[in-house]
Amino acid sequence: MLPANLLPVSASESTQHLPAPPVAPDTRLRRLRVAQGILLLFHVTGFVGLAFSQNPAFYLQFVPLNLVLTAVLLFAFQRDRSFAFLSFCLTVVVVGFFVEVVGIRTGKIFGQYSYGATLGFAWLGVPLIIGLNWLMLTYMTGILARYLPLPGFVRAVAAALLMVGMDICLEPVAVRYDFWTWAYDLIPLQNFKGWFAVALILQVYFNRTDFEKRNPLVPFVYLVQLLFFFGLSWFIR
């Protein structure tokens, strides 16, 4: 009788403990191009619909869905989904949401504003999807800033400025399409100061959280969103 370690094993038994083969570079690139194509289709369709349609309300109803699908594609390319990363995501979503709750109730963070119906279901006067928006922006700008050869805090400042830059492009579109409205129809300077302060705190937290901070889809998502809001704000003037 042969010793146990010399007994023949089936092919499935001999391979079941082997590590999964790495994804080939061309496969990763193909997946990236598919994701970029889907995102481009989302944003081009939305731009054309809002800018040229006789019924922009039809396209506005898909704004929350568009944001969720963008987030799904974006985080699909985040390879490290460790506890630290998931904790970071949950913390930013919660902080971003409740900062907005305090903001609309006191007017002391961003100024006097209130949310409309476009962003979907709201709790405590704030659409639930706002927390996801804070997460995506914090995550994307934090990763983009890591391309800069800067010390940690200066990099956090740069990332916070990228977030404020996105908000500057977003504000005219948000007001026009009832994302939110400002008192006296005036976007206050306080809004951008508040955005910078909150963004800077979140970026410092981003830098101090230990997870892999690389995502090949991030530059494309940030750029396509920036162009979408900048182009639409210019068109609706």
TrEMBL record:
It holds the Pfam family Caroten_synth. Keywords: Membrane, Transmembrane, Transmembrane helix. The keyword RNA-binding does not apply. Signal peptide: none annotated. The keyword Membrane applies. The chain crosses the membrane at residues 34-52, 58-76, 83-103, 115-135, 147-166, 186-205, 217-236. This is Carotenoid biosynthesis protein. It comes from Hymenobacter elongatus. The lineage of its organism: Bacteria, Pseudomonadati, Bacteroidota, Cytophagia, Cytophagales.
